[in-house]
Design goal:
Oligomer: single chain
Shape: elongated
Strand content: 25-35%
Strand order of the largest sheet: 1-2-3-6-5-4
Structural class: alpha+beta
Length: about 450
């Protein structure tokens, strides 16, 4: 047997049996703070707090105190912000309020200026001065009602009865009777009416509102303007107040009071001004008239036309009659006769331009035919002759008698102008100085 002690032996390698790894509890590593996605952000994401309660350490106390200071700072900042916002809002409100006050003041001043301008414009232009409103609105602004006008003026309007005698071509005489109206202009009995109301009268009688009758005399008249002034011997009468017809505008409300049909004393009618400055031809005379739709009937002639202040602005004169025609009446503007009233009261007659000729209208309408020239008259001094045809006076053409009559109204006694006449197939220009028309040469 061999001795194997000295024989080296290979080491015996024990085959290891693989074993499954034992799962070990992972060791929790401290979580680092998560970086903010915003580079400059003051905030960081903190690690979740440990589930195991930890005793406060000395390092935790300063952190708590730091939070308190932060809350206090935040609170103070919030209070400061609120205070700043409140002050800002108050200041803004003050500025806005001040701005609106300034704007309101400016607007008020602007409106006041516009109102004053409008008042002045109304006074200067649109406002009639007779109590009517702007642009002829029929409702009075500061005026009277028609009933008030009637109550205040019924004792100033009178009826006039005309008894006359006419003679026909056979020499036969006939008594005539007509009636009209008038209005008292003085407490001692002066009365205005139309000339055609007193024309041809042998007896004039005035009937007042209380049915008293008084005989009347003629003071004077202007037949070309259909105007007359008469008088009764009575005192203590109630006169009307005269207004201004120039202040009227189309559309102004007016009131007429008169004696229609000679029976309906103190009847009132209401209407409006339809047209101003209407030329109306009456008996070869052109008369400037107010046109109105106020009812004017026979017997109203010579009566007053009132504005809404109760002032007389016209003398009702005529009504246009015809088939299918209604509400076309006329009145003489009071401003056109006020000077005549003054002249009649002062002189007893109306002074007007006087030429001293007898004339008629040519049938062909080329001019006014002169068939007589008075000796030593203004016409004779100017060189007018019988047979001349007057075709112009001054700058006015005179193809008709009415047009010559209208042209004469633009001149006063003693005025000098040219007169154009057709003679021997040519037109001559003469110079004439008017005389004064009075009872001795009328």
């Amino acid at each position: 047997m061999e001795n194997n002690e000295n024989i080296p032996q290979e080491p015996i390698i024990e085959e290891s049996i693989p074993q499954e790894p034992v799962a070990q509890e992972p060791v929790a590593e401290p979580i680092a703070p998560k970086a903010s996605p915003f580079a400059d952000s003051p905030y960081v994401m903190e690690a979740p707090a440990s589930t195991q309660p930890q005793a406060p350490t000395a390092a935790s106390k300063p952190r708590k105190e730091g939070r308190g200071r932060k809350v206090l700072k935040t609170l103070l900042a919030s209070v400061l912000i609120v205070a700043l916002v409140a002050v800002s809002c108050g200041f803004t409100a003050f500025c806005v309020n001040r701005r609106w006050e300034d704007r309101n003041k400016q607007t008020t001043l602007a409106l006041q200026e516009q109102i004053e301008e409008l008042k002045q414009e109304i006074k200067d232009n649109s406002y009639t001065g007779n109590g009517n409103s702007i642009s002829g609105t029929p409702v009075p602004v500061e005026g009277l009602t028609p009933g008030q006008i009637h109550a205040q003026n019924k004792n100033s309007v009178v009826g006039i009865a005309n008894q006359g005698i006419t003679t026909n071509i056979f020499g036969q005489t006939t008594e005539t009777a007509s009636s009209g109206s008038g209005f008292i202009i003085s407490e001692d009995g002066y009365i205005v009416t139309n000339y055609h109301v007193i024309e041809g009268a042998t007896t004039l009688t005035v009937i007042t509102n209380n049915e008293e009758e008084y005989p009347a005399t003629v003071v004077g008249y202007d037949d070309g303007n259909d105007f007359a002034l008469i008088k009764i011997d009575v005192t203590g009468l109630t006169p009307v107040k005269l207004g201004s017809s120039d202040d009227l505008i189309v559309g102004d409300q007016v009131v007429a009071i008169g004696n229609p049909l000679g029976e309906m004393t103190n009847s009132l009618t209401v209407g409006y001004i339809s047209v101003k400055d209407r030329d109306v031809t009456i008996d070869n005379s052109i008369i400037n008239m107010l046109q109105t739709d106020t009812a004017i009937n026979p017997g109203n002639s010579g009566g007053p036309l009132f504005n809404m202040k109760g002032e007389v602005i016209g003398i009702t004169t005529a009504k246009y009659s015809g088939t299918a025609v209604e509400s076309i009446g006329f009145a003489i503007p009071i401003d056109d006769v006020s000077q005549m009233i003054d002249e009649l009261l002062e002189n007893g007659y109306i002074s007007a331009p006087y030429m001293g000729i007898q004339i008629t209208t040519q049938t062909d309408g080329i001019g006014v035919y002169v068939y007589s020239v008075e000796a030593n008259s203004p016409a004779a001094a100017a060189g007018l002759r019988k047979g001349d045809i007057i075709v112009g006076l001054g700058s006015y053409e005179t193809p008709t008698l009415a047009s010559l009559d209208k042209a004469l109204r633009n001149f006063e006694p003693n005025d000098t102008t040219t007169i154009q006449v057709y003679r021997n197939r040519q037109v001559l220009e003469l110079t004439i100085t008017f005389g004064a028309k009075n009872p001795s040469n009328s």
